[in-house]
Amino acid sequence: MMRAVLVLVLAAAIAASGCLRQAPAPERPNTAPPPVALPAAPVAPAPAPALPAKPVDAEDNSWYQPRSAWTTSAVEQDATEPMARPYRITVHHSGEPGDAKAEPKELMRTFERNHKNRGWASIGYHFLITRDGRVFEGRPLRYQGAHAGGDNNIGNIGVCLIGDYEHSQVPKAQREALIDVLDRLTRRYKLSRSSVYGHRNFKTTDCPGRYLMRVVEDFRAGN
Ligand SMILES: [Zn+2]
Q1: Peptide bond before 208: cis, by omega within 30 degrees of 0?
Q2: Among candidates 206, 188, 196, 80, which has minimal Cα distance to 138?
Q3: 126 three-state secondary structure
Q4: Cα of 146 to ligand 1 centre, how many Å?
Q5: Distance, CA 203 to ligand 1 centroid (Å)?
Q6: Alpha carbons 191 and 89: distance in angstroms, whole number
Q7: Gap from CA of 73 to ligand 1 centroid (Å)
Q8: Domains of the chain: which residue ranges?
Q9: What distance in angstroms lies between residue 172's CA and the mean position of ligand 1's atoms?
């Protein structure tokens, strides 16, 4: 009896010492008995019905003056496409130093007229920003824009700053308004800062001017 107890104690000591000389046991020995069926888990209560996805356009739009603030003219729907899910934003300048002095709503109407005369559905940009930092809706975001050339317009939000930024610095109020617009749009569409471009990234052009391009590059770099 004493001998048997001694053998057991010895065996237990070897096992407890973590002896690695023994072959490790398989995780699932072939001889394992079939699993015992457990009683069925209680049925979880049905989850509350999911709310319908919030449409993007239902978000806060109070940061810009809507198209209806400057025109009653309609977008020519046959001349454009519905906007694809935005995945990039392109910044422009209007390039006309005289623009900066024009009354903004009158200027929007002038752009609209000129762009429609080219056969476009409406003004080509989705947003325009005045020198004093006011933001206007141009072409509603549900329509593809006409600002970056052909397929470059697909899923591409066009933002135009009024003024010539090849030859002068971007006024502070306008620069800050642009950064606010870019922050809002990148958040709304879950875009990275590197999804923001200057027009010159798509074609050979001065647009958006070297001074505004610097603002775009700073935004892309996270500054
Ligand atoms: Zn441009």
Answers
A1: yes
A2: 80
A3: coil
A4: 10
A5: 9
A6: 9
A7: 23
A8: 86-220
A9: 20
> CA-CA distances (angstroms) from residue 199 to 148, 206, 208?
6, 8, 6
Pairing state between β 135-137 and 127-129: antiparallel
- Of 43, 207, 57, 53, nearest to 125 by C-alpha is 207
Sequence-separated (6 or more) residues with CB below 8 Å from residue 132 = 171, 173, 174
Residue identified by tokens 């700053």 is: 161
Specify the 3-state DSSP secondary structure of 65.
strand
pLDDT digits (tens, 9 = 90+) for 117-167: 999 999 999 999 999 999 999 999 999 999 999 999 999 999 999 999 999
pTM passes above 0.90: no
Q: How far apart are CA 107 and CA 110, in angstroms?
A: 5
Beta bridge partners of 220: none
Run of H or E including 92: strand 88-93
The owner of tokens 């973590």 is 18
Quote the pLDDT of residue 102: 87
CATH of 86-220, one of 3.40.47.10, 3.40.50.80, 3.30.300.180, 3.40.80.10: 3.40.80.10
Question: Can you tell me whether residue 154 is helix, strand or coil?
Answer: coil
Cα–ligand 1 centroid distance for 38 (angstroms): 68
